[in-house]
Amino acid sequence: MSKTLILDGLRVAREIHQQTQKRAQKLREQGIVPCLATVLVGDDPASHTYVRMKGKACEKYGLSSIRIQLPTETTTEELVAKIEELNQDERVHGILLQHPVPSQIDERKAFETIALHKDVDGVTSHGYGEVSMGFGEFPSCTPAGIMAILDYYQIPIEGKHAVVIGRSPILGKPASQLLLNRNATVTVCHSRTVDLANHVSQADIIIAAVGKPRFVQGDWVKPGTVIIDAGYNKGNIGDVDYEACFSKASAITPVPGGPGPVTIAILLKHTVDAAERMLNRLVYK
Amino acid sequence: MSKTLILDGLRVAREIHQQTQKRAQKLREQGIVPCLATVLVGDDPASHTYVRMKGKACEKYGLSSIRIQLPTETTTEELVAKIEELNQDERVHGILLQHPVPSQIDERKAFETIALHKDVDGVTSHGYGEVSMGFGEFPSCTPAGIMAILDYYQIPIEGKHAVVIGRSPILGKPASQLLLNRNATVTVCHSRTVDLANHVSQADIIIAAVGKPRFVQGDWVKPGTVIIDAGYNKGNIGDVDYEACFSKASAITPVPGGPGPVTIAILLKHTVDAAERMLNRLVYK
């Protein structure tokens, strides 16, 4: 039996961060400090942790960050006004609205307010549409991270059958479009899928993005499949039953250490991309 | 053996047109004539026919139309300028750029110029993104027409396995998103798909959008499948081998008389939608 390759997200993230750091340094030498604004509404502890991690990563790799903290009772209008302010702020190159937001807020409206050229997290419908059409600049970060992992390990995508489990606007859907644009045949499964096991068992590549711990079973997986576990459930448990799937997979991401760290690396990379584009616009205008 | 249901696109189109006509009449009574602007570049005879058909349909159902005819040698900049003019023109509620455009034109750039609220043909990446996210106003017309046919004949979609053959930005891709949003499990196949017959044979619903005459073979189709043939090839031949597939399908669209006529009905409906929205904006502002 051949050995299962562990797809090390930390390693992929490290390589992306190194490139980002060099480019951020160059920008600084030209007087531009790439800057990510993070917006956090309320006091969800997990969200606080994520935002803090992103801020720390910015610091570590030569970006700056602005942290906007709004109270739990913030209205949609207040949040929209704050995002519009950040859209106008020339120091800010990327905007990240940490979700989930409190329930009184129209999250979609808030997302849609983010200017396309600052949507480094890839949450706007316009950005999604551009990515689907093949010319988008900032795909949603986790799907972009998944592609980075596949590419780092030179896993063939063209002609392969990818089964994406989940259809959220920032994970399953954009992952399906990125894979399709790389010439995979793509099946999108979800909570209403009938006979999910049968669909999954036909995959050459499985993208698990369900948000349910150990959801993908070992006996669903055909031998030799590449498994990307994009789930993060409480207690560092993925969407895939890792123990059961490991021996069947030709390659698999661990949890933690799969798409998670690459997601942040992509976010920073996108912010530097946005800063470079802003510089180019200044130079050529 | 049970009888195969013929999904009559003309009948579906007629019903949509009737509703559109009533709504157009109401708008006229309020002083607004819903207006579609068609833009045709060059002298492709098929394109001329399509544009003429659309203009005639407008006339028949109480809409007006403005026909813009540009010479073959039009540049991207000239076309973009014309579209921007139509975006600003308050008499115009919907804009249709007939494609294909001559090869010197950046077709995507021209499409992207169309204002979102006038993109009644559903060609912009932003419109596509909104439709994918589930709140878009104007899905691309042929996919919307396909959904109208399925709904008219009360064909169940939720939980069904839909296989879409083709991934063009105005047909295969948006069709896949509309079906996904209606809770189908969706597989998108295309020219790089390996073992296409195997994928197609698993479908409950086949959407053929390949642009190759009689491409889908009878022995690819499992008994009881619903087949929508969105192909239109020379000589009124669809993408499906109709004779061979007919007896296996539980329901099938004929060519001609399938999604074609419904596409135009949706285009006019969208134009009236856009005019109603413009009226509402005037009333409430």
Question: What labels describe this entry?
Answer:
homodimer; 285 residues; alpha/beta; Rossmann fold; 2 domains; six-stranded parallel β-sheet; three-stranded parallel β-sheet; 9 strands; 44% helix
Textual characterization of the structure:
Two copies of one chain form a homodimer. The first copy, chain A, has helices at residues 9-29, 45-60, 76-88, 107-113, 125-133, 141-152, 172-181, 196-200, 242-246, 259-284, and strands at 5-6, 35-41, 64-70, 94-97, 161-165, 185-189, 205-208, 226-229, 251-252. By secondary structure, chain A is an alpha/beta fold. Chain A folds into two domains: 32-115, 3-Layer(aba) Sandwich (Rossmann fold); 141-260, 3-Layer(aba) Sandwich (Rossmann fold), CATH 3.40.50.720. A six-stranded parallel sheet of chain A has the order 1-9-8-7-5-6. In chain A, strand 5, helix 7 (172-181) and strand 6 (185-189) form a beta-alpha-beta unit. In chain A, helix 1 packs parallel to helix 10 and helix 6 packs across helix 10. The first copy, chain A, starts with a strand and ends with a helix. The model of chain A has no long low-confidence stretch (mean pLDDT 96). Chain A binds chain B through residues 108, 124-130, 132-133, 135-136, 158-161, 167, 169, 173, 176-177, 180, 183, 185-190, 192-194, 199, and chain B through 108, 124-130, 132-133, 135-136, 158-161, 167, 169, 173, 176-177, 180, 183, 185-190, 192-194, 199.
